[in-house]
Amino acid sequence: MTYILAIDQGTTSSRAILFDEALHVTAVAQEEFPQHYPQSGWVEHDASDLWSTVAGTCRAVIERAGITAAEIAAIGITNQRETTLVWDRETGQPIHNAIVWQDRRTAAICAALREAGHEDMVTERTGLLLDPYFSGTKLKWILDNTEGARARAKAGKLLFGTVDSFLIWKATGGASHVTDATNAARTLLYDIRKGRWSRTICDLLDIPMEMLPEVKDCSADFGVTRNDLFGRPIPIFGVAGDQQAATIGQACFRPGMLKSTYGTGCFALLNTGATPVRSRNRLLTTIAYQLDGTPTYALEGSIFVAGAVVQWLRDGLKMIRAASETQPLAEAADPAQSVILVPAFTGLGAPYWNAECRGAIFGLSRNSGPAELARAALESVGYQTRDLLEAMHLDWSGESDHAGAPATLRVDGGMSASDWTMQFLSDIIGASVDRPVTLETTAMGAAWLAGLRAGLYPAQESFAEMWALERTFTPQMPESLRGEKYRAWKRAVAAAQQV
Ligand SMILES: Nc1ncnc2c1ncn2[C@@H]1O[C@H](COP(=O)(O)OP(=O)(O)O)[C@@H](O)[C@H]1O
Ligand SMILES: O=P(O)(O)OC[C@H](O)CO
């Protein structure tokens, strides 16, 4: 038997998943690692935790499956995006903790760049906004705040990378300093139309281009693992940012196909084909995947709090012990009450991009309790998704060669296991929601990219035919109620932003 090893390096844990020749999951290993919050709004990871949990889970999954490294044809890597690392070319030692995508420390840098009138130029090239979310200003911050770093970077002694680059550097023993086009597209430094690093933006942020990795297709030769890691070298043949890997795993290969992943946050990607669509509604333009030198673009809506609101009910309020308890609570909630929770714990992402806004609860009465709060938490995920889809619809229907909103939303991620949430989602967006049999879509996307190059997995069309539906949720809510509830949500978001 031959296998593909997929590495999914996420925000809270690292996972290693073995896929067999039929693209079935054979074994999984997962390890969490600590989050560091040095100041309010700052989020860091210790780079050695990222590496040790990846190496550890890879070894564990091989042992669990009872196979040898010789049976692994190739490795595919997918990763939390935007998280920024700088390390020494000689020693491989990072000069700072990884600054995580959620980290807001560069808000002032972004504001200053916006005020100086640079946002339009940056958006035109990168498809992104001047928001602390992306890597560019995080990298600038590390260079500004570590003595001598900029000079060492100019001299070629320091390297920059997103998590994929760092893991490949470690796995290949420093032989490869590379990334893929989807990760590059999240840095704020990459021109997604020209397919190369932007000198103009690097100059603007004073980032020496010597430290940037080489950008490759998603299915390409990223190097081979050093001998001592698995006892024999294994090629790394696939790389994609996790949301793009999920888009691939969901086989959203045709323009107009749309997926939404419900993990800690929620990320919806709409395939827009060979042309990048510039959003007029504050969505992001990004690369969905790049194969054979050709990028396929996407519009992306990013919500920072989705499943995290359920975690808050569990860990913050201690209202539930397990995420799945939200469903019976929501079912028991009083239909006469309209409690609305705006989960802006770390500001609002797309399409609002309000870093200062904080969470709020509206419509409480003396009878409101855990059931109404749980329902409001699950509903907030549906409302936020509708916000994204409305913006996408406006951008997409403005394009001349196609019309109308995408008819179906493909979902995945931990929270998509909640039937109640998926039914409400379908009700509030007024479209069908398709949940696939395999919810390991992110890892599957990375595995397919690697297996494609290894000659183990079929080409795009045949792979798309393997996508299997588990359940479709169709809208059941009367149109009038859908409109009424969504209007109440819009009023609540507006009010939360005025506090
Ligand atoms: N049955 C459920 N109902 C509601 N939320 C759930 C359920 N199961 C998991 N979740 C939520 O999904 C998230 C975990 O999803 P996962 O895809 O593993 O996230 P991530 O990759 O961001 O760590 C958690 O935030 C959890 O609260
Ligand atoms: O690690 P996840 O699954 O929370 O994904 C994080 C995203 O890539 C951030 O853009």
Automatic annotation (TrEMBL):
Its EC number is 2.7.1.30. It comes from Roseovarius aquimarinus. It catalyses: glycerol + ATP = sn-glycerol 3-phosphate + ADP + H(+). Belongs to the FGGY kinase family. Residues 259-452 form the Carbohydrate kinase FGGY C-terminal domain. PANTHER family: GLYCEROL KINASE, SUGAR KINASE. Key enzyme in the regulation of glycerol uptake and metabolism. Catalyzes the phosphorylation of glycerol to yield sn-glycerol 3-phosphate. Sn-glycerol 3-phosphate binds at T11, R81, E82, Y133, D242. InterPro entries: ATPase_NBD, Carb_kinase_FGGY, Carb_kinase_FGGY_CS, FGGY_C, FGGY_N, Glycerol_kin. It holds the Pfam family FGGY_N. It is an enzyme of class 2 (transferase). Inhibited by fructose 1,6-bisphosphate (FBP). Transmembrane segments: none annotated. GO terms for molecular function: glycerol kinase activity. ADP binds at T11, R15, T264, G307, G414. Residues 3-249 form the Carbohydrate kinase FGGY N-terminal domain. The gene is glpK. ATP binds at T11, T12, S13, T264, G307, Q311, G414. It comes from the Bacteria. Pathway: Polyol metabolism; glycerol degradation via glycerol kinase pathway; sn-glycerol 3-phosphate from glycerol: step 1/1. Keywords: ATP-binding, Glycerol metabolism, Kinase, Nucleotide-binding, Transferase. Glycerol binds at R81, E82, Y133, D242, Q243. This is Glycerol kinase.
